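Today's session is about reading a structure prediction critically. Students often jump straight to the picture, but the first step is always the sequence itself: look for stretches that repeat, for charged clusters, for runs of hydrophobic residues. Only then move on to the predicted structure, which in these notes is written as discrete structure tokens rather than atom positions. Here is the chain we will use throughout the hour.
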Amino acid sequence: MYGKLLGSILLCNYLSKIIDPIQSRTALFRFTPLKREDIIKRLKFICEKEGVNCTKDGLELIYDVSSGDLRKAINYLQASSTLGDVNSENVMKVTSFSRPEEVRKILEYSMKGDFESARNYLRVLLIEKGMTGEDIVRALHREIMNPQLKISEKTRVMLADSIGETEFRIVEGADDEIQLASLIAKFILMFKEGE
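Below is the predicted structure for this chain, in token form.
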């Protein structure tokens, strides 16, 4: 009609957050995560051009936190560079990324059936360390998929299912602490069942 093609790009991570009338008028493009070596190579290139000191462990951690999303990786690189060198310590500060042993404590308390200690430690991660519910859920998922965790395959599957359900509820706007406390309760019941 006007001789010009008008269009727009709507970028989102969760399709469920876009209302149906907009979804029905859009084309969906899904992008797969980039390879570790490709993202790290690009981050090194940026560091060289910007004169930023970076360490291998810092760049590796940025990849882990970004889950193969280059846009997120560059944002984390920029944020961590404001604290000085891009190393694992500074990356953890700006991303609220947890060390595996921190989240592993929740699983250890759950395996012992100690709900109170697991919930109290959850509050430490949420309040004192500033982690989000999504961060904790993803870290728990990484931990239960770790082959070093000695649990049955059936228990691992049930834990993964509960983690997925919890993440969905958190993403949809449910309270982080309530959902994660419920997840801990489910973990304890599953570990007791698996004995």
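Discussion point for the tutorial: The chain has a mean pLDDT of 83.
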